[in-house]
Amino acid sequence: MVAIHLDRIGHTYGTSAAYALEKTDIHFENGKTYALLGPSGCGKTTMLNIISGLLTPSDGRVLLGGRDVTRVRTADRDIAQVFQFPVVYQSKTVFENLAFPLQCRGWERGRIARKVNEIAELLDLTTRLDQSARRLTAGEKQLISLGRGLVRDDVAALLMDEPLTVIDPHMKFDLRRRIKQANDQTRHTVVYVTHDQNEAMTFADEILVMSAGRVVQRGTPRELFEEPRNVYVGSFIGSPGMNYVPAERSEGNLRLGGVPLLTGDRCIGVPSDGEVLFGIRPEHLVFATASEPGVPASILAVQDHGSSRVVDVAVGPHRLRMKVRREVPLPSGKVRIHAPSERIRLYAGQEMVS
Ligand code: ATP
Rounded CA gap, 41 and 321, in Å? Predict the structure, then answer.
């Protein structure tokens, strides 16, 4: 396992002048798990393919453990990869599939058996080792692909490109748990591509949120949730995403529906003109108690999500979403809502200012 450094890397496919990946410098620490998260076309796979060597970047260098591998072919980079679709040898047994990468490296039989058994146990494949891979479900085949990625502990890094795409929704939760457990044990340097924030949040020590060929913020799942640096990240992370509503300026306070939400020091640093937005997570909005300052609102719609409800409320012309636990009684009609000031973030020109 090694650190990965993308040194002033950038890529254009040549078919257009636009950069699929804008010039950037990115460091992945040794032994940590990273998720590249973003919508389709934002450059995730391009970055992954540059690390693996499937793509030579137009600009910059790729360093694995300090070694410049920019022009080194994939096979010589010592990288394990798991793709969207399972890659298994149908004619081989599960054991033979898992053993194959180790046989190719000339490991002796006893050592191979020990390692394969270890990985099979981790992925709950022990009872399947003698079965033909042909008979397995898509989910089980993908487990083998994952196992083949994990089985070599001498790889520089493990790269995964949306490995749960073909998995049935009801199996995803279980597979996510197993991959996480496997990563925690093997401590590979992992770069995991996904457009699913739940996947990214489950696995990653750090997430790189991407948009239009750029990393717009990197941070722990908690940092991205609590301190989204711009409106894009706040909206993309969270389910539903962060509420953004224009703040009314009055007497040095910032108000919503005529009620001061931020006063004094919290307004310092806010640009004196131009639109300022309150950013408030749906989870942080509550119905005000009698003693709390409350913004008058009316309930527009309620969606039942099982253990929680998403309540759409209107404050004047603005619509906000609240996420409340199921046990919280829903007032009807006119309500007052409260946003704790320490939970409110302020944005100007799309970027967080406070
Ligand atoms: P997805 O989740 O759909 O795979 P992504 O975030 O991985 O998307 P990339 O596949 O890296 O995004 O694509 C980034 C940009 O580069 C897109 O605009 C895409 O159309 C373009 N692109 C990707 N591959 C090629 C190619 N081989 N030739 C030309 N343009 C490409």
Answer: 28
pTM: 0.91
Ligand 1 site, residue 15, Cβ cutoff 6 A: yes
Ligand 1 in contact with 42 (CB < 6 A)? yes
Which residues pair with residue 346 across a beta bridge?
278
Q: Locate the ligand 1 atom nearest the alpha carbon of residue 38 and give its number.
A: 6
| pLDDT band (50, 70, 90) for residue 68 | very high
Q: What does the alpha-carbon distance between residue 18 and residue 32 come to, in Å, rounded to a whole number?
A: 31
Pinpoint the alpha helices (H) of 151-188.
169-186
Domain residue spans of the chain: 4-236, 243-352
Amino acid at 187: R
Distance 141 CA to ligand 1 centre (A): 26
Q: Is 44 in the pocket of ligand 1 (CB under 6 A)?
A: yes
**What is the CATH code of the structural domain delimited by 4-236?**
3.40.50.300
User: Tens of pLDDT along 294-314?
Assistant: 999 999 999 999 999 999 999
Q: What is the whole-number distance in angstroms between the Cα of residue 162 and the centre of ligand 1?
A: 14
253-256/248-250 β-pairing: antiparallel
The Cα 319–Cα 235 span in angstroms is 14
Using only C-alpha atoms, the chain has a radius of gyration, in whole angstroms, of: 24
CATH level 3 topology of 243-352: OB fold (Dihydrolipoamide Acetyltransferase, E2P) (2.40.50)
**Residue closest by Cα to atom 19 of ligand 1:** 41
